[in-house]
Design goal:
The protein contains eleven helices and 15 strands. It is an alpha/beta fold. The chain has a domain of 218 residues: 3-Layer(aba) Sandwich (Rossmann fold). The strands form five sheets. A seven-stranded parallel β-sheet has the order 3-2-1-4-5-7-12, sandwiched between helices. A two-stranded parallel ribbon has the order 6-15. The chain starts with a strand and ends with a helix.
């Protein structure tokens, strides 16, 4: 199969492209390179440009008429930045995606796998969420993801568009060969910050929020290895039509996580065990837009796609550390 991957120069996009190739498929990358590095594209078919550039989309399809599906990952993703710059987030994540979806339908390429987010869930008792759990997206970033879910649901009901919506939990690690991973110099997510503190690139890891209603007061997350997450995308494109037939609809939403909740303090302890020494930490209030968190009930994705995570939290930490030590070779900066 040939798969268009928007945002394919990004972290999850590039790892997913590698997983598609490992499964015998051909990724075609569309990325503006606003944030993703050109090095992650490697030797893949690549189009540098905007997802809302209809002329470019027509050229992609003209040159790859055998495209089977689009995995739409291109988005702005930094929660505090979305609070400070909401216009840019609604423009890039929502308005431009509308043009992308409309043009894909016009071009007869209606299958879309969409990267959504677990950040849109409300806090629930026990912190385990199913796809029908209450939603309360706490940031402009999360609200853009929920809006796009609604767009896909509405467009799939009214047009030929068909959508598998994957609500990601918290991806960690790299691909097995360490060819791509977290690329920003100072990542905002928890494991990136923890890795930087461990390697002495920042003076301490900051635990943001210590009075949450969790078992130790810190936020709770479901940390899924990015290679497992990439395999979920492979399953989605390979079983796309069967998945929709199984649920009897034109779109379906599924959680993609491990099914295990880990608090930030628990993550620090696991990290220190893998790393082999303590990591300096400090405490601070939650950042703007931060959520208490949740972990996934993954029964639906297991039933619909036959996918479950296979790698452990420790696997993800080891992979993240290995990538952090190697990424200078790939990207030219620590």
């Amino acid at each position: 199969m040939k798969i268009l991957v928007t945002g394919g120069a990004g972290y999850i996009g590039s790892v997913t492209a590698t997983a598609l190739e490992a499964a015998g498929h051909t990724p075609v990358v569309l990325d503006s390179l606003l944030t993703g590095p050109r090095a992650f594209v490697r030797d893949r078919a690549f189009y540098e440009g905007d997802i809302a550039d209809r002329a470019l989309l027509r050229r992609v399809v003209d040159e790859h008429p055998d495209l089977d599906c689009t995995i739409h990952m291109a988005a702005r993703i930094v929660v505090p930045e979305s609070v400070a710059q909401p216009y840019e987030y609604y423009r890039d994540n929502v308005a431009k995606s509308l043009d992308l979806f409309d043009e894909l339908v016009r071009l007869g390429k209606p299958r879309v796998v969409f990267s959504s987010s677990a950040s849109l869930y409300a806090t629930v008792e026990g912190f385990e969420v199913t796809e029908t759990s209450p939603l309360d997206p706490p940031s402009p970033y999360a609200r853009t993801k929920r809006m796009m879910e609604q767009v896909l649901e509405d467009m799939s009901a009214a047009t030929d568009l068909r959508a598998l919506i994957l609500r990601y939990f918290n991806p960690i690690g790299s691909d097995p060969d360490l060819t791509s991973g977290v690329y920003v110099r100072e990542p905002s997510h928890v494991l990136g910050q923890l890795t930087m503190a461990a390697l002495g690139q920042i003076d301490a890891f900051t635990i943001t929020g210590t009075d949450h209603p969790t078992r130790d007061g810190t936020g709770i997350r479901d940390f899924v290895h990015v290679w497992d997450l990439a395999q979920a995308h492979v399953a989605a494109v390979e079983r796309f039509d069967d998945a929709l037939a199984k649920v009897g609809g034109s779109s379906v939403t599924m959680n993609v996580g491990t099914g295990q909740g880990v608090t930030v303090r628990e993550l620090v302890r696991s990290f220190e065990k893998v790393f082999g020494s303590p990591v300096p930490t400090r405490e601070a209030p939650p950042r703007p837009g931060d959520a208490v968190g949740a972990f996934a009930n993954v029964d639906k994705v297991a039933d619909v796609l036959g996918w479950r995570s296979a790698l452990t939290l420790e696997d993800g930490i080891e992979s993240a550390l290995a990538w952090a030590r190697r990424r200078h070779e790939v990207l030219g900066y620590p």
